[in-house]
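Suppose you are handed only these lines of text.
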Amino acid sequence: MVSTLDIEMQTIAESGLKNVDFQNLSFGKVFSDHAFLAKYKDGEWKDIKIVPYQNLNLSPALMTLHYGQSIFEGMKAHRTEKGEVVIFRPDQNAMRMQKSAHRMCMAHIPEEIFIEGMRKLVELDQLWVPQQEGTSLYIRPFMFGSDEFIGMHPSDEYTFIIFACPVGAYYGKPVRVKIETEYVRAVEGGVGAAKTSGNYAASMYATRLANQQGYDQIIWTDGKEHKYVEEAGTMNILFKINGKIITAPTGDTILDGITRKSILHLAKHWGYEVEERKLSVNELVEALENGTCEEAFGAGTAAVVAPISSIGYMGKDYPVPALTENSFAKKAHKYLIDLVKGRTADEFGWLYYI
Ligand code: PLP
Ligand code: COI
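From them, the structure of the protein bound to 2-OXO-4-methylpentanoic acid can be written out as follows.
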């Protein structure tokens, strides 16, 4: 569908591209030339524009800074081997952003603004989409309540912004994770399924403690009994146990990850048995001990497929077998990378071409 969205364009005089070391990209520290902006006021979206990437001018009374009415998304634009620019399943991110907005009592962000804003920004900054294997242009749409008011109620006004950054790997090596049994990220009835900033703030303390103990990440368990495995702080978690691909079901307490969803689709397509069900920590530890847990890995936009090398529980570390060429996680990872590099056909219509 051709969009008729009217976007005012303010472009920069000189690109910052020449200052970027594309050979040594880390994650999320360098930003492309432009950003997309839209304001919600008096019940409608207006001031829709692309501007040079710049700081925001915000009131100290901006209600989001106090009460956290803020949501975000994460996508990646890739450059195929032929040089085209593609984005992985942005329609899914647009949909999830709407769900997050609904849960957080925020303005509905129309799919056209989300998709066309992203398309126009990436088209304009397309030279920022790196070519090298393992790199991409990470796209960060986000929205926050912009009322200047410190009474507690949902904001009447909102700001929606999309910016982008060329990135390398989020995790450079297999991750060591710890099963969290004291702190809680989300509970049933809470906001764990919304991609809202408070969920990330809430996970920092326990993650810091785990980092101090030598772990890279936490696996959260259910908030009631700490009995069932849920997800990690930045990705969903999947296991291969006895040949079956097992992962926690989506619901109130975990993010309905697009990478997770795509990997489960591939698993079913390739004939694996898939179980989206509660996996108890006891069952997992037993499987790690008796060797039936063959694979453990994280899945997310930033992390892509992140192999887990060991899982800590109650002070003991359980090693996870290293992935081999025949591992499911390796095959799924290769499929996703080959897809966005244009090396494999887009059989499920997951690519959006700029
Ligand atoms: N869970 C959390 C808490 C995340 O932050 C992410 C990353 O976006 C994911 C899961 C994976 O979601 P997706 O695959 O849509 O990026
Ligand atoms: C993503 O994978 O897109 C995320 O939002 C995770 C974030 C912590 C980088």
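What can we learn from it? The first strand starts at residue 8 and ends at 9. Residues 74, 231, 233-236, 255, 257-260, 299-301 surround pyridoxal-5'-phosphate (ligand 1) (CB under 6 Å).
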